[in-house]
Amino acid sequence: MSTAKAHIKNLVDICVEKGLRHIVISPGSRNAPLIIAFNRNKKINCISIIDERSAAFFALGMAQQLSEPVAVVCTSGTAALNYAPAIAEAYYQKVPLLVFTADRPMEWIDQVDGQTIRQQNIYNNYIKKSFQLPQEPSHADDFWYASRIVSEAIETTKFPEFGPVHINIPLREPLYNTIESKNTHQNTFETLSTQLSLPTESIKELQKEWNKAKKILIITGLLKPNKKVNEALNKISKQNKVVVLTETTSNLFGENFNRSIDRLIISIEDEGAAEFIPDLLITIGGPIVSAKVKTFLRKNQPKIHWHINASNDFVDTFKCLSKIIPVAPEQVLPHFEKANKTTSNYRELWINKDRKLFNVFKKFLNKIPFCDLTAFDIVLDHIPSKSNVQLSNSTPVRYSNLFNTMAKRNLFGYSNRGTSGIDGTISTAAGAAYASKKLTTVISGDLSFFYDSNALMNQHLPSNLRIIIINNGGGNIFRIIDGPSQTQELEKFFETKHQWSAEFIAKAFTIDYYLCTEGKKLKSTLEKIYHPKYNQCCVVEIKTKGDLNSDILLQYFDYLKQN
Asked: How far is 64 from 47, CA to CA, in rounded Å?
């Protein structure tokens, strides 16, 4: 038995034909035909998550790990608006999310009918494409049109690049009727994958610029793990004129890579910056976390800047863009693995600076009391190698970039840096852990956790998820960045100081909870939750002093400058 609405049954059959395997469903009435049709098809894994905002981020985490479309479906009205944050993140992070929103009949829009809002093109500014299914198809062409829309929508989530696509589905009552039906073969189409490559003349032109440059700086932003890119950059980094700066979300590991951009940049004084300024700047991947490197290169602009990105995005982060190379990095980088020998100390300049500052960093860590910085050191040192780490925005993703640990331990780093919001961190990590089956640790600030605490209202929380909260009593980032700390509104309106605890939130959802307020307890707790025999989701709350944290971080940067 399946839904009596034939075009909805066909929609599900097309999804199966096109290889869709997972859909995250939030309860409702208007989406009942979709719920019934999807749930009764045994080839699709249906996941039920009540909160639409959390559900969409959970699906985003799944699609992020699977690199394939994952669908979400909700009822009509404001339920659809709750998908918006995750859709925006998917759009800018380029994640294949397929969004189904059930809608009221078109004639009832703006007629003060319940759960009725204007849903057509509701995500217009941050969606690859939007569609609307015919309301009550009756003619054969209506069914052909509906089928074509669904095929096109699924293809569009994948080509020419990943991203979210929306199908709005107006439905009339009755909604719960079912009929006996068989799975039918649907006519679908597919887009053959292609791979762009550079013409020979363009390669020669780029190689000429490469060989001419004596100082080449490669900065990598948000990247999925990519073995070919990693191998190419490792070969390139052996050239004495090449410097490779990575971040925790770059997922690149190499002996000659510089792993802490902020630690390096803060120590380069203005009067001594000239020798660090590259002739040629190359950027790869998505958003870069470090604000310091953005400021440095906007102030000290290189003559040439290449941006390598298959998406052909017009990204001019450093205000000196000269070439966009719209090809996948793994197709371009091998052309520069062998270059003319150039006398240069550029790589050694950065590497020696990095080594010196790393030793300064270790000395500083040994001098300070228990705080966010030492907590991060302990946590990163205990996470099992080659596992996944999800980092919330504001301080956690920034703190992670102060350490070499993730690169040394081959920890794969992910973060919602598409839009860099604090919403959805725990939900995304839960979806990522569910899909990847790999041990996944999410490190979150307190406000990010409380903001997304509905993520725990989920029957599908995987046993391979570890939730670590660094609770410093508010948005500590506002004590660190310029501006807010000098205002009288700091504590109430920026930092939003509080004395909340995650203990009873965890207990409400029967999740193991551990409180740590000092290093020794934190180490023993981490040893317990990462023991191979420990096999359940848990929350570890680390409480630190907010005022102390900001003072120590500022002292740290001053310490680097002085050494």
From this structure: 17
Please tell me the total number of residues recorded for the chain in this structure.
563
Conformational region of residue 377, where left means phi above 0, alpha means psi within -120 to 50, and beta covers everything else: alpha
- For 293, how many CA atoms within 13 A lie in the half-sphere containing its CB? 27
Same fold, 200-347 and 368-562: yes
pTM: 0.94
Count other C-beta atoms under 10 Å from residue 548's C-beta: 17
Nearest by Cα to 222 from 253, 255, 247, 258 = 247
Alpha-carbon distance 100 to 122, whole Å?
Answer: 12
What is the distance between the alpha carbons of residues 491 and 438, in angstroms, rounded to a whole number? 39
Rounded Cα distance between 535 and 527, Å, is: 13
Domain layout of the chain by residue ranges: 2-179, 200-347, 368-562
Superfamily the domain 2-179 falls into: Thiamin diphosphate (ThDP)-binding fold, Pyr/PP domains (3.40.50.970)
483-510: burial string, b at 16+ Cβ within 10 Å, e else = ebeeeeebbeebbeeeeebbeebbeebe
Residue type, 557: F
Task: Report the amino acid identity of residue 473.
Answer: G
Yes or no: is domain 368-562 CATH 3.40.630.90?
A: no
Backbone angles phi, psi at 418, to 5 degrees: -60, -50
Q: In the CATH scheme, what is the code of domain 200-347?
A: 3.40.50.1220
547: Cβ contacts below 8 Å, ≥ 6 apart: 479
Q: In what order do the strands lie in the sheet with 304-308?
A: 257-258, 242-245, 216-220, 280-284, 304-308, 323-325
Query: Pick from 516, 549, 249, 526: which is nearest to 373 by CA?
Result: 549
Contacts 24+ apart (CB under 8 A), 295-300: 296/265, 296/268, 300/273, 300/274, 300/276
**What distance in Å separates the CA atoms of residue 90 and residue 416, rounded to the nearest whole number?**
9
* Exposure b/e, 29-57, CB count within 10 A at least 16 = b: ebbbbbbbbbebbeebeebebebbbbbbb
Tokens encoding 463? 């046993």
Q: Each residue's pLDDT tens digit in the chain (563 positions)?
A: 899 999 999 999 999 999 999 999 999 999 999 999 999 999 999 999 999 999 999 999 999 999 999 999 999 999 999 999 999 999 999 999 999 999 999 999 999 888 989 999 999 999 999 999 999 999 999 999 999 999 999 999 999 899 999 999 999 999 999 998 877 777 888 888 877 889 999 999 999 999 999 999 999 999 999 999 999 999 999 999 999 999 999 999 999 999 889 888 888 865 568 899 999 999 999 999 999 999 999 999 999 999 998 886 788 999 999 999 999 999 999 999 987 888 899 999 999 999 999 999 999 999 999 999 999 999 999 999 999 999 999 899 999 999 999 999 999 999 999 999 999 999 999 999 999 999 999 999 999 999 999 999 999 999 999 999 999 988 777 777 777 777 888 778 777 888 999 999 999 999 999 999 999 999 999 999 999 999 999 999 999 998 898 899 889 888 887 76
Task: Name residue, tokens 């000098």.
Answer: 486
User: Is residue 528 packed enough to be buried (19+ CB in 10 Å), middle (13-18) or exposed (0-12)?
Assistant: middle
